[in-house]
Structures are given as C-alpha cells and as structure tokens.
Specification:
Blueprint: H1 6-11, H2 37-42, E1 54-60, H3 68-78, E2 83-89, H4 95-104, E3 107-112, E4 126-127, H5 129-134, E5 139-143, E6 146-150, H6 153-162, E7 171-175, H7 179-190, E8 194-198, H8 202-211, E9 215-216, H9 219-224, E10 227-232, E11 253-258, H10 267-274, E12 279-280, H11 282-298, H12 304-321
Parallel strand pairs: 1-2, 1-3, 4-6, 7-8, 7-10, 8-9, 10-11, 11-12
Antiparallel strand pairs: 3-5, 5-6
Length: 336
C-alpha cells in the first residue's frame, strides 16, 4: 500500500499474482501510489513482465516526481529488452535495508538521487575515482556479485558542452556550489577548462573553487566579466520558483547552460534566447546522464532521441497543467 508499494503493484503479475490494483482513470487512483491502468500497461508493461525480467529503478525520497521511469522504460522498449525501471521510495533510515533487498532480487542497477547520493558510497564495493572525488554517486550496477558506482552527471555536462566548444582552456562561470555544481566543476577541471565559481554565498563558492584550483567571485563581479560559458546550477527558475533569475540584467557569457529542466524554458534561457545567445537546456543534461546510465547497465547504445522525446512530452504536459508563477515586477531575483 501507499507510494512505497507502487513497485509491488507493477510486479505482482510477473510473480504469479492473479490481479493487481490500478486506477481506471488517468487523473489518479483511490489511494496513494495507485497509478492509472493505462500507465501500468504502457509505461511499465506489467502484463509482459516475468520472473526473469531484470529490475532497475531510481532510489530517492521523495520519488514520485522523477521522470527517470519515463526515459528508461522507453529506452528498454526501444531496444526490446526484458527489463523494467521502477520508482523506489527509500527513506534515509532504510537505505541499508534497500541494499539488502536489492542484493536478494534481480536488481541489476539503479539510479541514486536526493538524499542518497553521498550516503550510498558506504554500501558500494567499487567506486569510480572521479565519483569518489566528487563525493557522490548517481549510478549503481551489479557486476560479478559486486556493487559498483559512478557519477554520470559529469557526462550530462561534458557531452552537451563539447558540441558547442572545445573544453580545454575554455573559460566557464559556474553559478552554484551544490552536488550538481561540484560534479560539473570536477568534470570540467579534468577537461582542462578554466573555472570560476559564483553564487550568493561567497564562502561556499570559495570552498568549491579551492577543490578544483579555480577562482571564486561575487555575483556582482561575475556580471561585469565575460566567459565562454555560463553554467547555472542553482534552483532559481525551477518550479515553483519559475519567475527567478540569477542574472536578470546582463548575461556574462557567449553560451548559457541551465541545469534546470522544469520548466523547459527558464527565465535565464528566455533572456539568453532574446539576446541571440546559444543555450543548452537542463533537459539535455538529464537525457545525457540517463543515456550513459543505460549504456552502463545494458552494454547497448542508448536511444537518445526516443528518451528525449518522451521526457519532453511529459514535461510539456506537466507545464500545461501547472499553475503559473508571475515573474517579479522588477525582473530581479527575489530574496529567499
């Protein structure tokens, strides 16, 4: 029952259950975690799963908002793989229980997100050196009975950027100092880019800058300079704070990369487009990191166009259904 029971509702038929619970209408069920029958059949293919189906999923708390099931299940279908990707609601107190459960089931890999990216390291047998430097893992897989971990957020940053410029010796302004920003900073440092960190908390920016032998500047200083790329890695512009922008006046870069992907077009991206500045969306990063996960788990090339198409469709539906938040009257960042 409840949201935590969603995976068992999907898997019951594959384990010999005569029936399972689903909602007849698309607008929700009669209890938390009960999903529409149409979704049960189309996204999770519950009637086609067997005891031999490989299990994958995303481990998070909360987890219902995740779009990873859409991109990975579509990828499994496109490559005709007997696999399913499920949302696993795992609280911080139950992460060790999850690992015991996964070891006893045909779980071959899983994504890791908030709040487990750091905590998961203690349960892994092998960790990619770059992921260990980042201090966070977002991808886990099982090989030869051992749990292995890496961080594909780095691929989500490097691959879209490399389509626009040569990373070595390029100047990058990174706005933010959280987990995603740290992954981007280390990946770009390894690619020999020149990195400057900025944000509202200059002390936090300086701390990340020291990690990569980069530079830290205030937001005011950053806005007065010019860089090859601006990477935005803060929650500003993300739903429900869709009216906020860290650089409301001058964009100090030739390319703008916003890691936020809900909404699809943030105030930062709208501003960049209005000024003819090339943009990279957070959706590109999301799909690229997911594509790398798929390749690690299956050994097959990811159907990137299919993955992009399905998540873009889902986000557009969500955007149309979401209430709009008006932008601040002066166009500036609201104080939090």
């Amino acid at each position: 029952m409840s949201e935590i029971g969603l995976p068992t509702r999907v898997l019951t038929p594959s384990l010999g259950g005569l029936y399972t619970f689903a909602a007849p209408l698309e607008n929700g069920g009669t209890a938390p975690g009960q999903i529409p029958a149409k979704l049960m059949r189309s996204l999770y293919r519950c009637e086609k799963l067997t005891r031999h189906t490989r299990l994958y999923g995303v481990v998070a708390c909360p987890v219902a908002h995740s779009k990873s099931p859409q991109i990975h299940n579509r990828a499994f279908q496109a490559r005709r793989l007997d696999s399913v990707y499920l949302p696993f609601l795992v609280s911080p107190a139950h992460l060790s229980d999850w690992m015991k459960f996964a070891a006893a089931q045909p779980v071959f890999g899983f994504s890791v997100t908030i709040p487990h990216k750091q905590r998961i390291l203690r349960y892994l047998d092998f960790i990619d050196p770059q992921a260990r430097r980042i201090g966070a893992v977002n991808t886990v897989w099982r090989k030869a009975g051992k749990w292995r971990g890496t961080n594909t957020d780095t691929e989500g940053v490097l691959k879209p950027l490399s389509r626009h410029l040569r990373l070595a010796r390029s100047s990058v302004l990174l706005a933010g100092y959280g987990g995603a920003a740290r992954a981007a900073a280390i990946a770009l440092s390894d690619a020999s880019a020149r990195i400057t960190i900025t944000g509202r908390n200059n002390q936090s920016a300086q701390s990340l800058a020291r990690t990569i032998n980069g530079e830290a500047v205030t937001l005011k200083q950053a806005a007065q300079n010019h860089y090859d790329v601006l990477i935005h890695a803060t929650p500003l512009g993300m739903f429900p704070r869709t009216g906020e922008c860290l650089f409301p006046d001058r964009l100090p870069a030739s390319i703008v990369f916003d890691m936020v992907y809900h909404p699809l077009e943030t105030p930062l991206l709208k501003l960049a487009k209005s000024r003819g500045i090339p943009v990279i969306t957070g959706l590109e990063m999301f799909v690229q990191q997911g594509a790398r996960q798929f390749e690690i788990w299956t050994g097959k090339p990811a159907p990137e166009s299919e993955m992009l198409k399905v998540v873009e469709h889902e986000l557009r539906k969500r955007s149309e259904a979401s209430p709009k938040e008006p932008a601040p009257s002066n166009g500036r960042v609201k104080k939090s």
